[in-house]
Amino acid sequence: MNFNIQPINLNIPRVSFKSNKKEQPAEPVLERTPKQDSFKISVGYVNDIHGQTNNMMRILSGIKGDLKLSAGDNDIGDEKNQGVRKATTMFLNIAEIKASALGNHELDTTQKDCIDAINNYDGDFLCVNYSKEPLENQNPDEVEKLGRAELDKHLKRSKIVEVNGEKIGLVGASPMDMFERLTHPNYYTDSKVDSLEDTIEEIQDEVDNLREQGVNKIILLSHLGHKKDQLVAQSTEGIDVIIGGHTHELIKDIKEGENLFYSKTGEPVLLTEAGRDGNYFGNLNLTFDKDGVIKKAQNNVGETRLFHKNMINQFVFDYLLGKPEIVGYVQAAPPPPKSLLEENPHANFVCDVMREKTDSDIALWHNCGVRGFFHEGVVDSSEIKDMSPFLDYVAVANVSEKTIVDLFKNAIETSYSSVGNKPGLIAVSGLNYTVDPEEGELVEMNFVDKNGNVHNINIENPSEDKTYKVVTDEFLMSAGADFNVLAPEEDYLEKFNYDKDVMVCQYIKESGKPVVIEHSGRINFRHDD
Q: Can you tell me the distance from the alpha carbon of 405 to that of 446, in angstroms, rounded to the nearest whole number?
């Protein structure tokens, strides 16, 4: 049976390296002739899928490799997202992902739930730098209330897998800001992640342990973030590849100084990262010499939306999540943005729906919360749910002009100065605004009323008395860790008992018209000549 699976069609030359402990090569050398006594392996990799079940089904149609690995953040959400958590584990098993780093989103739920997911996973979660206070030293009532358990005992520091007769060593590491990015930080106040300096030492110790066991080909599964991965590559010895995640970089090909670095002993170290939300996945082809040094490499990145869902896997996912409802048809939709610093027309459309359905002046949605996008063709409720998987209820409140301006100023400044550009620019309806990307500043903002009239907002002296009826989700309205509070819950005009996806499904079904998603220039960028 054919499922019309799209192939990766990339004509990227293999890159060859010559390690030199005294002198590093100026640039990769192309080489066509294979060497003797070599070992070839293909590694399929993913990172930061964030529970995107529809993208998982597409990835299953495309990911290949002798060994398949994840850099973490496979999952997302708390105990409200049990179906997604089960589907994520099912994806890891069907894809035969042998090991994963422990990302921050794996810990969005309780330690007990996290352990359940680990126990149902056929592979292993690897982490050298996570530890926790023993349960016997904690208040028993707090342990029970917060769902704490012996999570540390369910993690491995490393593992050895055999591929085509060769031993491959795998090591894992979690991010320093692990507990700053959790849905429920109080679930993990008994836990810690070591500093970067200590983590590098722990990674090296684990690599040395593997080498003592005769393993000379070693891969680090890292959720540290790309800049830290670069530092690890240059501060250690014995690591050949770092499968990376956390900062959502999209790294194609092999480029020296970007994802090709050299270890303390001058051997090449390759870094990968395939964006966010499962929009991409990778395949790394490697050739090692007899001493376990990479001599050739080819890094291919596939765009998930170009692959079709596997219908057999669709049936399995529907069993776990419930069969989705077809709600309409998308006539046109652009590719999703590749950065949190771009305007997101898919999120703008959702804002338009929220604004119209609640008769609000302004609708907002934070870019870092947008986890999916519209595909052209028939659209169902699960695809729309993938755009907002956290289950943050829609809320409406009167918000002052000054509060709105302060929100945007802070979000823009933080986004342009933070690792991974989080929290990202804010999607809007009823507003447009201009950003200076060089300075990371808000330079202009306008309110667009329901008749299309444009009213300038004085961002230097916004009014504290003038208010707008604003609709967004409760995360942005009052609970978002990266944002100013727009309105406390006691001041809400209305709170719906569902998230944005339900509202969008209702809108599409009621309109009965094909959906057209297009760029509308709601965010402008000022560049100094």
A: 10
In whole angstroms, give the CA distance from residue 296 to residue 55: 30
Output the CA–CA distances (angstroms, integers) from residue 196 to 173, 181, 242, 246, 388, in the order listed. 10, 17, 16, 15, 32
Dist CA 225 CA 199 (whole Å): 13
- Residues 149 and 115: their CA atoms lie apart, in Å, by 8
Q: Please, what sign has the CA dihedral across residues 115, 119, 123, 124?
A: positive
C-alpha closest to that of 203 among 164, 244, 167: 244
- The secondary structure of 115-150, three-state, reads HHHHHHCCCEEECCCEEECCHHHCCHHHHHHCCCCC
**What does DSSP assign to residue 81?**
G
d(CA 80, CA 474): 15
CB atoms closer than 10 angstroms to residue 215: 20
430/516 Cα distance (integer angstroms): 18
162/338 Cα distance (integer angstroms)? 36
> Under a CB-based contact definition with an 8 Å cutoff, are residues 60 and 93 in contact?
no
**Cis preceding linkage at 423, omega within 30:** yes
Strands (DSSP E) found in 1-65: 15-16, 39-46
In whole angstroms, what is the distance from residue 285 CA to residue 283 CA?
6
Q: Are strands 494-495 and 394-400 parallel, antiparallel or unpaired?
A: antiparallel
Closest residue by Cα to residue 123 from 148, 153, 154, 86: 154
What's the longest Cα–Cα distance across the chain?
77
What DSSP character marks residue 176? T
Backbone angles phi, psi at 521, to 5 degrees: 65, 40
3-class DSSP state of 326: strand
The token pair that represents 453 in the structure block: 């009239």
Which amino acid is located at 432 in the chain?
N
In whole angstroms, what is the distance from residue 169 CA to residue 1 CA? 37
Q: Which residue bears the tokens 């990778």?
A: 282
Instruction: Look at the block and give the residue holding tokens 């890891």.
Output: 92
At 167, list the tokens. 């031993």
- Per residue in 52-93, pLDDT (tens digit) is 888 998 999 999 999 999 999 999 888 777 888 888 999 999
In the sheet with 15-16, reading across from the earlier edge strand, the strands are 15-16, 294-303, 280-288, 39-46, 67-70, 97-101, 124-126
DSSP-derived secondary structure for 178-218: GGGS-S-GGGGTTEEE--HHHHHHHHHHHHHHHHHTT---E
pLDDT tens sequence across 430-482: 999 999 999 999 999 999 999 999 999 999 999 999 999 999 999 899 977 67
Residue 420 has a CB neighbour count (10 Å cut-off) of 19
- pTM tops 0.85, yes or no: no
Helix (H, G, I), strand (E, B) or coil at 106: helix
Q: How far is CA 368 from CA 5, 185, 247, 514, in A?
A: 30, 18, 12, 27
Where do we find the tokens 């529809």? 54
